[in-house]
Structure formats: C-alpha cells, structure tokens
C-alpha cells in the first residue's frame, strides 16, 4: 500500500526529531565539569584527553630533595606568580601556562594550537614551562629551548624542536644555533648553565604543586587541563575564564 503524503511527513519528522534530540540535549549540557584542586584555593581542573604520562619516568627516582621541597613551598605561597610570571590578569586577558615535553606525541598539536591563538590575537598571555619528563633527549631539548630564550629566539626554536628530534652532542647545538642566528658559544654555555637547571626545576615544582603528572598540560586562568584539548574547546574555556568575576590571580599577586 502506497504511503500517503502525511505519513511520509510524519516519518520524516520523527527521524528528524531523533537526530535533533541529542543536539538539543548538548545545548543544555554543561560545557565543563570543574573539580577543585586540593591545596590550591580558587583553582580547579577539568578532564583532558590523551597525554604522555611521567609516572613511569619518575619510578625509582631519588626522593624529593630539600631544594625540591623549598621550591614547592614557594609555589604554594604564590602559585599565580610561579605559573604565569609577573604579568597581570587584567583587561580581559587570560594568562595561560603551557607545560610540554619535546618528545611527547601530543604536545606538537597543542603547542600549534597555542601558537595559532597567539598569532590570531586571542585574549591570552602565554608562559611556557619546559617539563622534560620523557628522558635525556627531552632534557637536552628543554635546555636548548631555554638557552635560545636568553637570545630572544625561544618560540622559533620551540616550534622547530616540536617538529624534529635534536640529536645528542654539541654538533647538533651548533647547527641549531646557525639555523636561528644564535651566538653558538653563549648558546652552549646557557644550555648547561645553573640558571637553565633552575628554570627547569622551578617549572617542575609548579607542575608538582598543581598535580601535573604528564604532558601536555595547560593552566588556563584558574583551570587546569592535563592532556589534549581541541581548539574549539580551549577557546570556550578561555571565554569562561574571561568572565570569571573572582579570579585567584588578581593584579596584586602578579604585579
């Protein structure tokens, strides 16, 4: 028996409603589920995606030293300054702290998203933290990036190291210096300097204070995300942080 036009329309509407209902539900579903971070009042976390875990790397490492304990105490006293540096959270600009490892398979994508947001004028100010948890090559690359920062070439070197492997040895450092017009002798000195070691130790202390156990990780204003996050979701989180009426990092703590 042939279907009447009305029957066809009713069937079509039923199918359309079946497809549309989940979308309507999504519109009313909370975008983020926030959980407080223990010991850090005002900060919170949301679930992220895949990450490279540092737990296996940390296994068997010596107990925390007195210096590690001191650094963590300093972070706990002023987590805003430790994570974001001396930059104010004002005028609608959201500070973001980025924790990456150059051998983390998920870090290049997230780093690329952050770079695009910077280039397109997103309302963010970014602080980069080296978190070389995946072995000696990660540590060598982190030292090279920090040494490049001393000569104003951090971001170009950072982007390059995210896309390539830094071979061990001084020859690869010389080649990197030539590629980015960096003075090679200073570059090698800075890479092995005490100041570079201290920078990595401070970032490690910040990560420990916030409970970061792998890369990539982002502290977006008051919200921690450990693992991958899509660009559209990150942009929504930035918008949420812009409207926060009582951020934990006021201008007084960052001035």
If you had to describe this structure to a student in words, what would you say it looks like?
The protein is α/β, with parallel strands linked by helices and 255 residues long. It has 2 domains: 1-30; 33-254, Glutaredoxin (3-Layer(aba) Sandwich). The protein is built from 12 helices and 8 strands. It has helices at 5-28, 55-58, 66-77, 79-84, 107-119, 136-149, 154-163, 170-179, 184-191, 194-209, 231-242, 251-254, and strands at 35-36, 44-47, 52-53, 94-100, 124-130, 214-215, 217-220, 223-226. The strands form 2 sheets. It has a 6-stranded mixed sheet with strand order 1-2-8-7-4-5. A hairpin with a 7-residue loop joins strand 1 and strand 2. Helix 3 (66-77) packs across helix 10, helix 6 (136-149) packs antiparallel against helix 7 (154-163) and helix 6 (136-149) packs across helix 10 (194-209). The longest helix has 24 residues, at 5-28. Residues 1-29 and 55-61 have low confidence and may be disordered.
Name the features.
single chain; 255 residues; alpha/beta; Glutaredoxin; 2 domains; six-stranded mixed β-sheet; two-stranded antiparallel ribbon; 12 helices; 8 strands; 52% helix; globular; disordered N terminus; DSBA-like_thioredoxin_dom; Thioredoxin-like_sf; DsbA family protein
Give the topology, please.
Blueprint: H1 5-28, E1 35-36, E2 44-47, E3 52-53, H2 55-58, H3 66-77, H4 79-84, E4 94-100, H5 107-119, E5 124-130, H6 136-149, H7 154-163, H8 170-179, H9 184-191, H10 194-209, E6 214-215, E7 217-220, E8 223-226, H11 231-242, H12 251-254
Parallel strand pairs: 2-8, 4-5
Antiparallel strand pairs: 1-2, 3-6, 4-7, 7-8
